[in-house]
Amino acid sequence: MQLKGLVRFFAIALTLICLYQLSFTWFVRNHESEMDQKAALWLKASYPSPEVKYPGNKELQADYADTLAEVKKERLQRLLDSTKDVKLAFGLTTYRSAKEKELMLGLDLQGGMAVTMEVGLDGLIKSLANYTKDPAFNKAIENAVARKANSGADLITLFIEEFKKINADAKLAPFFASRSSNAVKIDDSNAKVEDYLRKQGIAAFNNTYRILRTRIDRFGVASPNINPDPAKGIISIELAGVTDKERVRSYLQSTANLQFFEVYTLENKDVQSGLVAADKTIEDFLNGTTANTKSVAVDTAKKTSTAPAAKTDTAKTATVSSLATDTNKSATAKSDTSKIKSNANPILRLLQVNQPYQAENGRTIFPAAIGYIQSKDTGTLNDYLRMESVKTKFPSNLVFMYGKAELEDPKFANVLTLYAIKTLDNGQAELEGDHISGASQDYDERGRVAIKMNMDKIGSNIWAKMTTRNVGKPLAIVLDNFVYSAPNVNDPITTGNSQISGSYTIKEAKDLSEILESGKLPAPAKIVQEQQVGPTLGKESVKGGIMSFGIAFIVIFALMLLYFNTGGWVANIALILNLLFTIGVLSALGFTLTAPGIAGLVLTIGMAVDTNVIIFERIKEELSRGKNYATAVSDGYRRSLSPVLDAHVTTLLTAIILAYFGLGPVLGFATTQIIGILLSLFCGILVSRLITDWYTNKNRHFEYFTSISRGVFKHAAYKFIEYRKYAYVLSGVIL
Fold it and tell me: What is the reported pLDDT for 399?
C-alpha cells in the first residue's frame, strides 16, 4: 500500500478533530443538566408542591403544576444566561462558545416551530402611492396579489403587468412622485418607476428581515435557522425548541414600532440620586435589612404571563417574586461580613456608568447612555429595576431601554448600553415613526457619513418642538423598544428636514436609514405557512432514530464477526471510524442533524459495510485459489477497487442531485449521505487496508472464513438471467 504515512496522518487527525468537536456537545449537555438540577432544587425550596398547595383539588393542582413548570423554565433560562461565560472543559472553553459548536438537532428531533413568512409588498406599494383611491391602480394591486398566490414571480413584476393590462397607455409616475423625495418625477417612464419600486422593495425586505432577526433573538433559541429569499419575498424560519407558539406567531407578525423619545442623562440630578438610592435599596434588600413589601407576587394558582422586557439574549428572566423568595430567606439570618461585602453595590457592580467628557468648546457633555452592562447580567438588572421599591426612586415617566447589540463587532457583542428614556405621562412617545416621509444615507457639509431624514407636516411640527427643547441633548431613535441611535441635537430643526451625523460607517448609516424608512413603509411579514412539531414527537423521533441506528449497527457488527471471523474486526473498526468521522464533520461544518439525516447515517452504515464485504469476498476467492495471505490481501484490495468505486460514485451522484434540487428533509438526507459516502471510501479502502497491513507485518494474519461462511454459498446457483423478465415485471409493479 502506497502513502501509508499520509493515510495514517489523516486518520489520526480526523479522529482527534472529530472527538474534539463532539466533546462540545458532551460538555454542553453536562452543564445544562447541572443547571436543570439547580433550577429543580431552587423550585422545590421556593414553592410548595401542587399536592401540598391544593390538596384534593386536581384542577387547581394541574394549573399550579403548569405555572411551576413555567417558573422553572424561566429560572433555568436565567441560570444559563448568567453562566454563559463560565469555563467548561477544564477551562478550555466557555458555555457560550461550546453551545455554538455543539451538534445541533433539527426541528423534527427536538420539537419547535417552522414558519414561512411573506413580506407584504402590496402595503408598501400603496404607501409609496400615498394610498391613492384610483380604481385602476388598486385593481392592479388586487389582481397582482391574487396571481402571487399561484405564481413564482415577485409582486412588483405582477403589479406592473396588471396595471398595463388595465390601462396600457397610463403612466405610474404620477402616483409615486409626491412621496418619493424627487426620486420619481411626474413625467418619468414606467421602467424608472419599476426600478424605484424594486429599490424600495429590497430596502423594505432587508429591514423586515433585520427586525425579525432581532425579535427572534428574544426567544432564547440557540442557532435559529433563518433563510431570506429576496427574489420571492419570503423568509423561512425554523425555531427549534420553542414552546410558546402563540407568542412567536403574534410577535413575528406585529408591525415594527418606530418611536422618538427624549432622553434622561446623568446630568439630571433626579437620575443621579435615583441610581444611588436604587443601589442602596437593593443592597439593603439583599442583606435582609429591608422588606420588599411592594414586590409583585406570582399567582401560582393561575397561569400568568409577563410582558417581555427590552433586552437581547436574556429572553426569559426569573419573576420578581422568585428573586424575593431567594433573598427573603436570608432576612432572618445573621448578617456576616462576607455576605455584606458580596451584596455591596448590586446595581453599580453590574452597570459600568458613563462619565461626562469635555467638548471642543469646553462644554461638559453627558453621554446619551447612562452606562454599559454585560448581556449575561441583564436578567439580574431587569429584576432589580422592576421592583416597586426601586421604581419609586426614579421619575415616573422614566423607562429603561437597552441599545441595539453590536453583533458584528466581537469586542462589543456581549455588551449592551442602557438608556433612561423620557416618555410622555401616558408612557407613549411624543413622535411616532409613521410621520417620516423619507430617509437615506447621505454626507454632511464636512464630508462625513450622515443620514438624511424628512418628515410630513405633523411630524415636522412635533419634531421642531422636541429639537428646540433639547438643543445640546440627545434624542433617542427606538425600534421595538431597542435604542438604535441617540444623536445630540445641535440646533432646532423647524423645517422637518434633518441630518444625523457622527462616527457612522456607510453600512451603519444605510441600516439606520432603512430603520427610519420602516416608520413609513408598512411592509410587515405575515405567516403564509406554518408547521409545528411538539417536543413529545421530537423525543419520539430521536428515540426511534437512535433505536433504528443502534439495531442496524449491532446486527451488522455481529454479522461481520460471524461471517468473516477475525477479519470482521477490521470492518467493524472501519465502521466505527466512519460513523465518528461523519457525525464529527457534520458538527464541525455547522450542519443540523435531522431525522432524514439519521436515515442517511443508517444508509451510510450499509454502504460502509458493503465496501468491506466486497473486499473480503475477493480476498476469500484469492485464498481459495491457494495464494498466501499477503498476496491474497494485496490482490483482493486491488481487484475490488473498481466495483467499490463504481457503487460509491453512482450513489454519490444521486446524493449530489438530491442536494442540489432538494430542500428541507431531502437536503438533510443528501448532505449526510454525501459526507458518509466520501468517508466510507476513506475508511473502507484506506483505513481498513492500513489496519490489515499493520497486523500482518507482525507475522500474523486475519482469518476470513468461519464454519458458517465456508458452506453458505458454496454450491449456490441462481438463475438471474433466466428469470430476468419476471424481475422486470415485478419491479414495474412495485414502482
Answer: 93
